[in-house]
């Protein structure tokens, strides 16, 4: 291993992405942004935090290798300080390790693991940190989470070795970055009620579909509003795209999971009598 790389002496610009929970992000930002400002100034690295009302956020650290190592050191020691503060108000006797989660392109994870797990074993043994590479890619991305835990000094040494691997084995092909999503997708129903349960994308798409279609969207039969035939076609298309259910009973090639002769009332949608149709 090149000692210059290990010690952060190479003038190579790297970008490392971290996945953090909201509480961790709050610790990094600090009161009025003072902590992250100090980290940027003292490390020389660019530290950006993703926007959005999400349970998870992406913290991107960019700069020469030595600047990245300084930034990681400051983050690791800040997290240890948070643990120490929480321990002072706790009856727990064992101190939990500092844990960081890196987001790494899946195409580089093979090099990080090594043949038969040899590389990741070497990193664990030489640094004293625990390293775990997730088996599955993060949702809607081609990246995996790499979890590092241990004492701050062990984490810093571990990050240095991971950076060496990433420099020696650049990503192959295009990388689709992981972008955390909100915990729930609000769905707007008739009457303006907003439901924020974690519903499926199908429900959200169906809601948008029915909101933005030109009339006639429905035909009225008694007290029920039946989707117009054109709408039924779109509903079938949505079902084909998003329904994860195993087809039950008799199916047709066009509409998996739907009865071959569904009764006309199957698609009834009840709406308030005062709704504007």
Overview of the structural elements:
By secondary structure, the chain is an alpha+beta fold. The protein is 38% helix and 19% strand. The protein has 9 helices and 10 strands. It has a 6-stranded antiparallel beta sheet with strand order 2-3-1-4-6-5. β7 and β8 form a beta hairpin. α3 runs antiparallel to α4, α6 runs antiparallel to α7 (152-168) and α8 (201-211) runs antiparallel to α9 (229-242). The chain starts with a helix and ends in a 35-residue tail after the last helix. Mean pLDDT is 77; it is low at 1-9, 196-221 and 245-260.
Q: What is the secondary structure topology, with strand pairs?
A:
Blueprint: H1 3-6, E1 13-21, H2 22-29, H3 34-43, E2 46-49, E3 56-64, H4 65-88, E4 98-105, H5 106-113, H6 118-127, E5 130-133, E6 143-150, H7 152-168, E7 187-188, E8 194-195, H8 201-211, E9 218-221, E10 224-227, H9 229-242
Antiparallel strand pairs: 1-3, 1-4, 2-3, 4-6, 5-6, 7-8, 9-10
Helix pairs in contact: 3-4, 4-7, 6-7, 8-9
Q: Count of helices? A: 9
**Average of per-residue pLDDT values:** 77
Which structural class is indicated by helix and strand composition?
alpha+beta
Low-confidence stretches: 1-9, 196-221, 245-260
Profile the largest sheet. 6 strands, antiparallel
Q: What's the SSE pattern?
A: HEHHEEHEHHEEHEEHEEH
Notable features of this structure?
single chain, alpha+beta, six-stranded antiparallel beta sheet, 38% helix, disordered N terminus
């Amino acid at each position: 291993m090149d000692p210059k790389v290990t010690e952060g002496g190479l003038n190579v610009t790297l970008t490392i992405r971290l996945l953090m929970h909201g509480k961790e992000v709050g610790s990094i930002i600090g009161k009025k942004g003072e902590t992250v400002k100090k980290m940027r100034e003292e490390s020389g690295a660019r530290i950006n935090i993703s926007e959005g009302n999400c349970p998870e956020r992406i913290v991107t650290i960019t700069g020469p290798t030595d600047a990245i190592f300084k930034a990681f050191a400051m983050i690791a020691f800040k997290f240890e300080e948070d643990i120490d503060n929480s321990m002072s108000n706790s009856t727990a006797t064992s101190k939990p390790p500092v844990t960081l989660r890196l987001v790494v392109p899946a195409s580089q994870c093979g090099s990080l693991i090594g043949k038969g797990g040899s590389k990741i074993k070497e990193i664990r043994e030489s640094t004293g940190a625990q390293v775990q590479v997730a088996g599955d890619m993060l949702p809607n991305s081609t990246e995996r989470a790499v979890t590092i835990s241990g004492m701050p000094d062990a984490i810093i040494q571990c990050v240095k070795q991971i950076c060496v691997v990433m420099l020696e084995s650049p990503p192959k092909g295009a990388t689709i970055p992981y972008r955390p999503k909100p915990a729930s997708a609000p769905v707007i129903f008739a009457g303006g009620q907003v439901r924020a349960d974690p519903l499926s994308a199908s429900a959200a798409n169906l809601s948008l579909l029915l909101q933005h279609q030109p009339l006639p969207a429905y035909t009225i039969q008694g007290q029920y509003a039946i989707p117009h035939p054109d709408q039924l076609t779109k509903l079938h298309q949505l079902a084909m795209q998003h329904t994860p259910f195993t087809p039950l009973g008799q199916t047709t090639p066009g509409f998996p999971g739907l009865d071959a002769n569904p009764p006309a009332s199957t698609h009834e949608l009840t709406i308030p009598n005062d709704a504007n149709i």
